Model the fold of this input.
Amino acid sequence: MPADPYPRLTEVSTIADLPPQEWAALSAGASLYQTHGWLHWAEEYFDLPTRYVLAYDADGTLVGAVVTNLMTEVPTRFTTWYDPVNMFLAPHVDPAGAAERWFPVLLVGGCSGYHGELLLDARLDADAQAEVRRAILDRCRELAARWGARSTVFMYLPKEAAEEVCRSWGGTAPVVATSAEAVIPLDGGETDFADYLARFPSARRSKLRKEVDGFTAAGSRIGQHLLADVLTEVAPLLGAHQRKFGATITDEETGQYFALQDKYLGAGSVVFTDERDGRINGFTLCYAHGDTLYSRAAGFGPDAAPFAYFNLAVYAPIRHALATGRRAVALGAGSYQGKVLRGAQVHGLWSTVLPPHPLEPSWRDALTRPFPQAVEAGICKEGPPVNAF
Done:
């Protein structure tokens, strides 16, 4: 009899079918967005058809995995940044009629968090990891065909990881500069906020201190809470923030959004609040995972104190991270200049795409060009194509 193929692949439709300890062993060292709790929340909140493609070795140990989601319709909120037409075509060409050709879309690596990953057992050598990766990604293509997906995308990866996926898919999938994440490292021996400030030149240090002092002088104080304890107060602030940027979402819906996150992630939540006269006028929601504190949502009312954003989104998380022994604060995407001025490093995020065929010439050209946020982040320049396929 021939030997069993390695790795052995299977699929499950929910993270609940996997023991948390088994998943945790594989995802150790991965981001918040690959935790059992985050994936469980994303399944329930977005309600997309889901499959986890799993790879096991001959001993039955889970050695590789990736989550996939089928997006059947053009999204209107929260997942719009996972819409390939919106991300890869619309900035460069008229996308009229494209949705009918691109959807359904198979999302590989996740549908939320703007950070995709394919998990591999760190104990495997490079050749074994490549074999497991290739087997999993081959199964993803089979899954796309089975589900009738017209396109497949693996989004928000470091460039090297995106290129590895591209090679596994035959080397013809375009790799597109998509976004970037800003992270403040705290691994230089800092023990408190004064140590953090000491990394900056004196003029910059003085500016940051003025932001802290200006917040306090307005009579505000920074509160720190679990999400469950302030959910009803912060949900309307998130709703107002989302509507400010064009989202059609109600406060009731943001309350439901937070309530479901609290169900699966609440134990690791930290909400920093701008409090004055018994009212919460602004907030930032973070989640602690591993050695990193992740900033996930924010909202500020008209009575928020001066410099409330930087105090709640940057300085309070830094103080908390240092006090709890964490070595980084992940600030997410956007507003890169302000984050870099406060010590963040910017890490590029790329996507690889299996587009529908035949491919319109204008779409082919668009897939060689970066998304504007990648240009804003400085990981590439607008102009001539950044890749070819």
User: Anything to note?
Assistant: The CA atoms of residues 108 and 154 lie 5 Å apart. The chain has a mean pLDDT of 94. The two ends are 42 Å apart (CA to CA). The longest strand covers residues 175-185.
